[in-house]
Each structure stands twice: as C-alpha cells, then as structure tokens.
Amino acid sequence: MEPKTSLIISTYNNTEALALLLKSVRLQSVLPEEVIVADDGSGDTTKELIKKEKESFPVPLIHVWQPDEGFRLAHIRNKAIAQTRYDYLISIDGDIILHHHFIRDHKAFSESGCFIQGGRVILFETASKKILKNGETHISFFNPAIYNRHNTISAPFLARIFTRTHIQSVRRIRGCNASFWKKDLIKINGYNERFVGWGSEDKELAVRLYNAGIKLKVIKFGAVCYHLHHKLKISNRRLERNNQLLREAQRLKTVECEEGISKYLP
After folding, report:
1. CATH architecture entry for 5-264
2. Residue 204 has pLDDT above 60, yes or no
3. Long-range contacts: 166-172, Cβ < 8 Å, 24+?
C-alpha cells in the first residue's frame, strides 16, 4: 500500500516561480494529501499568493514562515516537517516545475529503509524566462535551452530497470527533489541547524541517514522536475564552514545532530 504524502516546498521571495509550481501541483495525476510551503522569510507577496491559492487548492495548503535572518533553509525545513501530518515527505525547492506524474512516482518507489533522489532537468535562462512568461508546465525532450535532456523522459518501465539503490553517495544528493519517511528524519533529528548560508545541508542530512542505516534510492526516468534558472550569491566563507560540518558528520559517523527538529516537536 502506497503511503500518504506531505509535499514540502521551500521558498524565498520568488512568487512568480512559486505560482507556476503550485499550478504544476494542481495538475498532478496523483495529488499529495497536503502541501506545506516552507518560507524562509519572504515578504507579503508570497503570503498573499498562498492566501489566494488556498481558496481553490485541491488539498490543504499550509504556510510555515520564519523571519528573514539570512539563508536558514535547515531551520525552515525542520519547522515545516514538524507540522506535516503524514508518514511520507516529499521535499522540493520553490523554483522547480513538476512533471505531472511526479508525486505518483515518489509514492510508487517509496520503500522502507530508503530515501529517494528524483530526476532533475536544468532549464537555462532563456527557457526559464519563456516558461514563466507563458505559464508553461509541460516541458518536453525537444524544448530548447535545457540541460540533462535525457532526464525529461518519464517512463515507469524504464524507471524500474534503471533505478538503483546506493549504500552511500554524497555526489548524487540534491535537496531540490527528494523524499523521506518522516520517522527516519525524526530519528536523526532532522536538518542540522548549524548550517546557515547556502550549501551542503542536504548532503550532511544524507550522511546521517546513511549512518543510521538508511539507503539512497536514485530514480532514473521518473519523479522528474524542471529546475528554473536562478542566480545564486554564495559566501565562500559560509560554504567552507558548511563543508566542514559535512566532513565532520562523515568522520564521526554522526547519526543525530544536536541542533535539529526536536525543538519543534510536541
């Protein structure tokens, strides 16, 4: 029996992309049971968009917000996870578009003792601007200005053949498209809130899941998402500190972080 799911969307001041993403959620062949928008300090336009969407959204749409104190993705994801009501969690970024079988595929490949990494298609700037302007949610293999073109293919029979389970792999981890059993995240105390600023919080989470005996399942030709182009300002100082935390978790074989989700749980 497939699990009931909570879809968690991480966002920050990008209402144009978020609106298109929510449109792609509405068009899913299989809907999640609820959608949680994990908002890292956006302004009123995001709040107004979610309020408007709630009026006709096909499942409960919940806005979890924290003050803007810099990039604190680990914090807002923990807060969102703590408010989910279902056993299986699908986590995505707010600047992607979902293939219409995205939720179906994550549910179909869910397996005890595993977490999932789905497929990603990268949209270059010209493609992203056109898609946002036209409100497109269908992106084909033949669309111009895309990278990882083969990742546009969504085919269940190919997915069953090419999906692989890995004992450990940091290189494959991308937090924009992943799914987990909620109990596994609680076991390791969720995301490590020592991570502040962009970089490696998703990889460190994966390392602790590995250390807890949870394996990574990488879906090929399924659970497809399309990542809109965006410019990213990276602080090298913060990134190096975050990478040190990642290496520490690997070296010490850490399972449970000290600063995590437990503070938000009942």
Report:
1. Alpha-Beta Complex (3.90)
2. yes
3. 166/215, 166/216, 166/217, 166/218, 167/210, 167/215, 167/216, 168/207, 168/210, 168/216, 169/216, 169/218, 170/203, 170/206, 170/207, 170/246, 172/117, 172/216, 172/218
